C-alpha cells in the first residue's frame, strides 16, 4: 500500500480560516433568528394591547395627523418671517416720518363742493359732446343713405383723338380763322371785315382823325412799303380820337347774320382792335357740316385751291367733340389745319400799324433779374 504523502504546509491555514468563518456566520444567523422571534413577539404584544378602532375613528385620527403636520418647510417659513419683519420695520419708520403737522406738509384738503361742481361741469361738457357726436352720426347715416341711392357713374364712351403731327407753317400763309363754340363752327371772315374796317377808317380820317402824316426815314424821305398786291406806297401814320372812333363805329353796326363787328379802342394800347363776336345760332353743327353742300365744306374746297391758305380752328372747351368731327372732314379733304383752345368770347384782330389812337403809355421801368434767361415763345405750327 502506497504511503500517503504529506499535505503541503500552505493548505492548513486556508482550511482553518474557512472553518472559523463558517462558525461565525452560523452564529450570526442564529442571533438574527432570535432577534426576529423577539421582535415579532413584541409587535404582537403591542397590537394586542391597542384598543379596537373603527374606520371613522381611523379617518379622523389620520386627518388630525395631516393637519398637525407642517405644510411648508420650516426653514422657508423662517426666511419669509424675517423678510416680513424687515418690511414691517421699514413701514413703521416711514409712518413716523409722515407723522408731521398739516402746516409743515402744506397738505391741501379736498373741497368736496368744488369737486362736485367740477363733476357737474364735466357732465355738461360730455352731454354737449354727445349731442354733437349724435348729430355727426345722423349726418353720416344720411350720407350713407344718399350713397346707397346714388346711381353708379357710367363713363362716357371713349373719344378717339389723333396724335398731332407738327409741321412748319407755310411762308406767307393766309390763315382762315374759324370759331368752334356752342357745338357749332363759325367762319370769322376776318380778312374781309378787316378790309371793310380799314376802308371806313380812311373815309373817316377827315372827321375824327387828330393828325395825319407821312412817315419819313433818317434821310428825310418818305418810307415806302408794299401792300399785299406788291405795290409800293408811302407809309402813313394816322392818329384818331379814341372816343370819336368808338362812337363812329357804334353807329355803323358792321357785320352779317353770323358775325358782329365792333371797333372799341383799348385803354392799354394805341393799336385799334377789331372784335368779331359770333351771333346766337350762327354757323353750322357737326351734322350740318358733314353735308357736301354745307357752307363749311364749300369754304374748305375754296381754301384748298389756294396753296397759301391755312385753316385755323379756335376751339372752346364746350365744343371739343364738334371740333373732332369737323377736323376729320378737313383731314379727308386734305386742307392744312391748325388749332388751339380759345377762351376769349370773341376773335380779335388788330388793324394795321398806320392807324392808331391817342395814347400816352405810363412810364415802364424794366426789371431784369440778375442772371435771367430769356426764352423765345414757341413757333406756330400745323398739326
The radius of gyration is: 62 Å
Q: Largest beta sheet: what is the strand line-up?
A: 10-3-2-11-12
Q: Give the integer mean of the pLDDT values.
A: 81
How many helices? The count is: 11
Helix content: 40-55%
Which structural class do the helices and strands define? Answer: alpha+beta
Task: Work out the strand percent.
Answer: 15-25%
Q: Care to count the β-strands?
A: 15
Please summarize the sheet with the most strands: 5 strands, mixed
Low-confidence stretches are: none
Through-space gap between termini? 156 Å
State the shape.
Answer: elongated
Order of helices and strands: HHHHHEEEHHEEEEHEEEHHEHEEEE
Description:
- The chain is built from eleven helices and 15 strands.
- The protein is of the alpha+beta class and 383 residues long.
- The chain has a domain at 170-210 and 240-360.
- The strands form five sheets. Strands 10-3-2-11-12 form a five-stranded mixed beta sheet. A three-stranded mixed beta sheet has the order 4-7-14. Strands 8-9-13 form a three-stranded antiparallel beta sheet, covered by helices on one side.
- The mean pLDDT is 81.
Amino acid at each position: 500500500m502506497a504511503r500517503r504523502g504529506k499535505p503541503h504546509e500552505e493548505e492548513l491555514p486556508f482550511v482553518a480560516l474557512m472553518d472559523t468563518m463558517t462558525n461565525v456566520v452560523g452564529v450570526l444567523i442564529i442571533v438574527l433568528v432570535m432577534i426576529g422571534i423577539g421582535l415579532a413577539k413584541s409587535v404582537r404584544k403591542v397590537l394586542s394591547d391597542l384598543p379596537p378602532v373603527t374606520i371613522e375613528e381611523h379617518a379622523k385620527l389620520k386627518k388630525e395627523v395631516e393637519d398637525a403636520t407642517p405644510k411648508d418647510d420650516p426653514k422657508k417659513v423662517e426666511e419669509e418671517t424675517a423678510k416680513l419683519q424687515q418690511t414691517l420695520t421699514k413701514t413703521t419708520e416711514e409712518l413716523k416720518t409722515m407723522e408731521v403737522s398739516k402746516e409743515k406738509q402744506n397738505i391741501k384738503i379736498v373741497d368736496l363742493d368744488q369737486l362736485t361742481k367740477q363733476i357737474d361741469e364735466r357732465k355738461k361738457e360730455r352731454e354737449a359732446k354727445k349731442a354733437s357726436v349724435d348729430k355727426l352720426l345722423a349726418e353720416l347715416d344720411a350720407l350713407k343713405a344718399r350713397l346707397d341711392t346714388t346711381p353708379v357713374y357710367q363713363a362716357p364712351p371713349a373719344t378717339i383723338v389723333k396724335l398731332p403731327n407738327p409741321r412748319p407753317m407755310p411762308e406767307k400763309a393766309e390763315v382762315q380763322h374759324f370759331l368752334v363754340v356752342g357745338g357749332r363752327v363759325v367762319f370769322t371772315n376776318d380778312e374781309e371785315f378787316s378790309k371793310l374796317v380799314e376802308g371806313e377808317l380812311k373815309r373817316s380820317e377827315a372827321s375824327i382823325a387828330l393828325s395825319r402824316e407821312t412817315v419819313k426815314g433818317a434821310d428825310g424821305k418818305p418810307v415806302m412799303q408794299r401792300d399785299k398786291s406788291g405795290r409800293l406806297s408811302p407809309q402813313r401814320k394816322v392818329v384818331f380820337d379814341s372816343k370819336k372812333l368808338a362812337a363812329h363805329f357804334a353807329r355803323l353796326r358792321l357785320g352779317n347774320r353770323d358775325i358782329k363787328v365792333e371797333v372799341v379802342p383799348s385803354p392799354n394800347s394805341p393799336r385799334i382792335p377789331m372784335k368779331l363776336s359770333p351771333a346766337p345760332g350762327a354757323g353750322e353743327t357737326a351734322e350740318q357740316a358733314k353735308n357736301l353742300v354745307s357752307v363749311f365744306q364749300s369754304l374748305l374746297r375754296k381754301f384748298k385751291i389756294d396753296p397759301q391758305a391755312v385753316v385755323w380752328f379756335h376751339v372752346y372747351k364746350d365744343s371739343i367733340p364738334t371740333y373732332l368731327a369737323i377736323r376729320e372732314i378737313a383731314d379727308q379733304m386734305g386742307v392744312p389745319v391748325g388749332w388751339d383752345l380759345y377762351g376769349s368770347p370773341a376773335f380779335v384782330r388788330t388793324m394795321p400799324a398806320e392807324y392808331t389812337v391817342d395814347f400816352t403809355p405810363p412810364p415802364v421801368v424794366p426789371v431784369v433779374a440778375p442772371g435771367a434767361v430769356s426764352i423765345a415763345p414757341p413757333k406756330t405750327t400745323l398739326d
